[in-house]
Design brief:
The protein has helices at residues 8-18, 33-45, 56-67, 79-84, 86-95, 121-125, 143-160, 170-174, 214-234, 254-269, 287-293, 310-318, 337-349, 358-369, and strands at 4-7, 23-26, 49-52, 73-77, 99-105, 136-138, 163-169, 176-179, 238-241, 248-251, 274-279, 281-283, 299-304, 324-328. By secondary structure, the chain is an alpha/beta fold. Helix 1 (8-18) packs parallel to helix 7 (143-160).
Length: 375
């Protein structure tokens, strides 16, 4: 199919429709509202369910109920809205049903602002509500990648009976790029052995997330952990750029990774052997790919639009064997490629020591650059 000019949020919405979305429940919040607006027209014209709930709490619990029937369902929101969904997400995970959530991230904490940020990384990867459960988290860096990952989100959620989240900053949600849409999938209602669908000619099916006997709850947790091991084995995804001979590696996801690629290319043009690893699944995280690189590289540079959250995962992978430096722009600020290029030059100029807390040196430099006194 030919490429068309698509806005990120609207492209996500159309991609969900073409992936077989049967029901959407959501609530408006910038910078993701165009997803809801687009689906408010598109879903009814196809005879599918669309509900603008009274709040994010209502929306995620509607997702919970509809997902119990085996339908393809999703919601979307932005940072503080997703925070309100945490209890419902935990219930969905505890009931072991598939659901998809899109988070178009904004600056925070608190109400923050409507500028693009990546400060929900920990919320998505390590948070997501109370309890002990994993979730699949995908992080696109372009409109086309967001389209492609939308169908994958539904497929993975159903394959592993768990939550699949897509996290993208507001830049990807609001930008317009040429992109190619997939063909429309036919909706085929599957009678999953676990789903409640009103059939009267079989034994009653009951879905719940409450296990009053601790041993039963433990069995559920172990079952989730076993399933997650399968996900970690089969579903790790990332992009590699110029890693064959790289002595320095930049690690960034989403827009930060995309901007970093421009800096890496320019550094390469000046003879610096630097490469980029951009995680697409931030959960499961590509620990092994980074682990393998520690044998060839002299240092890593983690770039994020936050104060250092994926940084912890990179440090876990590297385990102190080579230096890991950090550069971040929190609060809704998108870094320029020349900022990252300067950090690459600083990395190469060395010598660098393995810092117990690379955030300290980063914070000192940021205060100096912004002409603010270090507290």
């Amino acid at each position: 199919m030919p490429k068309e000019l698509w806005k990120g949020n609207e492209a996500i919405a159309e991609a969900a429709v073409r992936a077989g979305l049967e029901a959407y429940f959501g609530y408006p919040i910038t910078p993701q509202t165009e997803i809801l607006e687009y689906l408010s027209r598109r879903m009814p014209e196809l005879g599918r369910a669309f509900v603008q709930a009274e709040s994010e709490l209502g929306a995620i619990n509607m997702v919970y109920g509809a997902a119990c029937t085996g339908a393809r369902v999703m919601s979307s929101s932005s940072s503080p809205g997703v925070s309100l969904m945490m209890e419902g997400l935990s219930y969905i995970a505890g009931t072991e049903i598939p659901a998809v959530l899109v988070n178009v991230m904004r600056g925070g904490p608190g109400l923050g602002n409507i500028a693009p940020a990546q400060s929900d990384y920990n919320q998505a990867v390590r948070g997501g509500g109370h309890g002990d459960y994993p979730r699949i988290v995908l992080a696109p860096a372009s409109v086309q990648e967001a389209i492609d990952l939308m169908a994958l989100s539904f497929d993975l959620a159903e394959k592993y009976r768990m939550i699949a989240m897509m996290i993208l900053d507001g830049s990807v949600g609001q930008m317009m790029e040429p992109a190619e849409m997939p063909a429309m999938r036919e909706i085929r209602r599957r009678d999953y052995e676990w789903a409640v669908n009103g059939a009267m000619n079989r034994e009653r099916r009951i879905l719940t997330s409450i296990y009053l006997n601790p041993l039963d709850e433990e069995k559920t947790n172990l079952r989730l952990a076993e399933r997650w091991n399968e996900v970690k084995t089969n579903e790790v995804r990332y992009k590699e750029y110029f890693l064959d001979d790289a002595k320095y590696v930049v690690v960034g996801f989403g827009t930060a990774g995309r901007v970093a690629l421009s800096a890496v290319r320019e550094a390469r043009a000046h003879g610096v052997k630097v490469g980029l690893l951009r995680p697409i699944t931030v959960s499961p995280f590509p620990y092994e790919a980074l682990n393998q690189l520690t044998g060839q590289v002299e240092a890593f540079l983690v770039v994020e639009m936050n104060a250092g959250q994926m940084l912890d995962d990179v440090q876990l992978a590297v385990r102190g064997r080579v230096p890991v430096e950090f550069y971040g722009r929190p609060g809704g600020v998108v870094p320029f490629h020349d900022e990252i290029l300067d950090e690459i030059r600083r990395l190469v100029s060395g010598p660098l020591a393995v810092s117990s807390n690379p955030r300290d040196s980063w914070l000192t430099r940021m205060y100096r650059n912004l002409k603010i006194a270090v507290p």
